[in-house]
C-alpha cells in the first residue's frame, strides 16, 4: 500500500519538539483513545522501558478510554475528569494518544483539532499532579490504517491521518512538548513485504502491531539497547571481544560465551516478523565455514538450523533465557494492569461513586479500593525486584547431524 502524503497543516513553530527524558521514580500515565487503552493488553512497551531502565523504579498507569478525543471524554456520573485522575496518580509524565478519531473530520476539522490540542496541553501544564511540578508531556501520533480486503483503498484516508500528524507536530513545536511519531515507522512497515498484519481490522492493533509500535517508541525515546552482534571468520581465528569469549573454534564447531549488556528484545508474537524489525534481534555472522548445514544452540538448546551461506550473510536469533524473563515480566504487568483497570473502571461504579454510593457504598467500597491498590503495588514491587540483567549464555554452531 503506497502512502502518498501531502501535509495540509502549517504552524508558526520556532524549534523542533524536545526529546522526552525519563527520570528515576517517574509516574508515567497513558491518556487517550483506543490505542492507549489497548496498551494494557499488550505490555511490550512498559516491559521494555522497565527493562531498559531497571534502576529507575518507574510506575505506569493506563487511563486510556476507547473513542476518547481531545475535547470529548464522556464519563459516568461522578467518575471524575482526567485532571481528577491524573492528580490521583500523581503523574510526572503523560503520553497523549489522540488524533485518529478526530482525523475523520478531514481538512475541515484540522484547525479546530490543533487549537483544542493546544488548549489541552495548556490545561495539563497548569497543574502539578505530583505536587511539585507540571507534567512532562509527549504527543503520540496515530498510526496509518492498514489495507485489508473489507476496506476501500486506504491512500486517501492515510493522507487525512498524515495531515493530523503534521498538525500534532506543529503543536508540539509551538508548545515545546515531545512528539512520538508512530505514523512514519508504521507506514514504512505497511510498505514492507513479508511481515504479518499490524491490525485485526485495519485500524486497531493486534499483538504484533503493539510489539512493533513498542520498538518504534523505544527507538525514539533513545533508550533501546543496541542488539548484540557477533561476527568473525573461523579461517582467521575468532578473537575474544568485549562480552564475547571464544571457548572453541574450528571449521566444524564454534563455541562462544556471550555476556550481553542488556536483554535482547522480546520475541514477537507469532512466527513472522518484518525484516526491518528482525534486525533488532541478536545477529550472528560467521564466515569461513565449509559448505553444509549447521545447528545454532543457545545454552544447549537448538534455536535454528541453517546453511553456511546463511551464517555468512548473518542470522538473527532469540535467546531462550532472555525470553523466559520477558514472559515472567509480561505476565506480571498484564496482571497488574488488569487489577488497576478493575479498580479504576469498576463495573459497579454506580455503587462506588454514582447515585447509589449512599448509604452503603461509602462504607464497603473504600476498603476494597485500598485492597486493589495494595495488590497493584505488590505487583510493582515484584517487578522492581526482578533480575532483568541478562545471564551469560553459551552459543554453539556445529555441523547438523545427518
- Largest sheet, if any? 5 strands, parallel
- Helix count, per DSSP? 12
Radius of gyration: 24 Å
Q: Briefly, what CATH class of the largest domain?
A: Alpha Beta
- In helices, the fraction of residues equals 25-40%
Q: Overview of this structure, please?
A:
- The protein is α/β, with parallel strands linked by helices and 402 residues long.
- The chain has two domains: 27-221, SGNH hydrolase (Rossmann fold), CATH 3.40.50; 225-402, no CATH class.
- Helix content is 37%, strand content 17%.
- The protein contains twelve helices and 13 strands.
- It has helices at 34-38, 44-52, 82-88, 110-125, 155-175, 183-191, 207-221, 275-278, 308-313, 320-344, 349-352, 357-384, and strands at residues 27-32, 59-62, 93-97, 136-140, 178-180, 229-233, 244-249, 253-258, 283-287, 293-298, 301-307, 315-316, 393-399.
- The strands form three sheets. Strands 2-1-3-4-5 form a five-stranded parallel beta sheet, with helices on both faces. Strands 7-8-13-10-11 form a five-stranded antiparallel beta sheet. Strands 6-9-12 form a three-stranded mixed beta sheet.
- Helix 2 (44-52) packs parallel to helix 7 and helix 10 (320-344) runs antiparallel to helix 12.
- The longest helix is centred in the C-terminal third of the chain and has 28 residues, at 357-384.
- It is globular, with a radius of gyration of 24 Å.
